Amino acid sequence: MFQARVLTQADIDVDLRTYRTFKGSPLGRPRPATSRPERAFVVVIATIAIVAALMLGAAPRELAAGVAGLGGGMALVAGLAGPDPRQVIVPSEPLLAIYARRVARGDLPQAVTRITDAEMARLGSHGYGSLVGTARPGGTLGIFVDDYLVWARTPPRSGIQLDPPFGMG
């Protein structure tokens, strides 16, 4: 199998960067979600507002009672059905963290991207490589280690608190 990418920018930086491989989520931290009780609470409040609007608008009481019953059923479903969305299983995929040109102990990576298991084994846990492209979120990058070029498998993201800081661990 042959893989090639073409960089069309004339001012591409090629410089020595520190990298580290680890397992984690290529997308970063999942968006905070609401719990089941919070979802049920929102449905109850919305139902109360709708029923109050119906009653103030002189709607028939049967209609308001039907909406209230429907809202109560929806609140019950929202509060009890399905798994809690906060219990997110974070995927553990091989990632490559690239640090800034000037990096101090404890600094987060400048860019993190997904790589393959074979590339992770070939690169080792940490080292130095020649960066080709831009180490920024959404950029295009590759890193030469000896004579082996590793391209980003996903668009790079910025470093987050769950990523390994430089010089730690």
The count of strands amounts to 6
SS-derived structural category: alpha+beta
H/E element sequence: EHHEEHEEE
**Main pleated sheet:** 6 strands, antiparallel
Sheet with most strands: strand arrangement: 3-2-1-4-5-6
Helix content: 25-40%
Q: Report the mean per-residue pLDDT as an integer.
A: 80
* Rg from alpha-carbon coordinates: 25 Å
Detailed description of the structure:
With 169 residues, the protein is α+β, with helices and mostly antiparallel strands. It is 28% helix and 22% strand. It has 3 helices and 6 strands; from the N terminus they run βααββαβββ. It has helices at 36-56, 61-80, 117-123; strands at 14-24, 93-98, 111-114, 126-133, 141-145, 148-151. A 6-stranded antiparallel sheet has the order 3-2-1-4-5-6. A hairpin with a 2-residue loop joins strand 5 and strand 6 (148-151). Helix 1 (36-56) packs antiparallel against helix 2. The longest helix has 21 residues, at 36-56. The protein is elongated. The relative contact order is 0.24. The model has no long low-confidence stretch (mean pLDDT 80).
Structural topology:
Blueprint: E1 14-24, H1 36-56, H2 61-80, E2 93-98, E3 111-114, H3 117-123, E4 126-133, E5 141-145, E6 148-151
Antiparallel strand pairs: 1-2, 1-4, 2-3, 4-5, 5-6
Please provide a brief summary of the model:
With 169 residues, this protein is α+β, with helices and mostly antiparallel strands. The protein has helices spanning 36-56, 61-80, 117-123; strands at residues 14-24, 93-98, 111-114, 126-133, 141-145, 148-151. The chain has a 6-stranded antiparallel sheet.
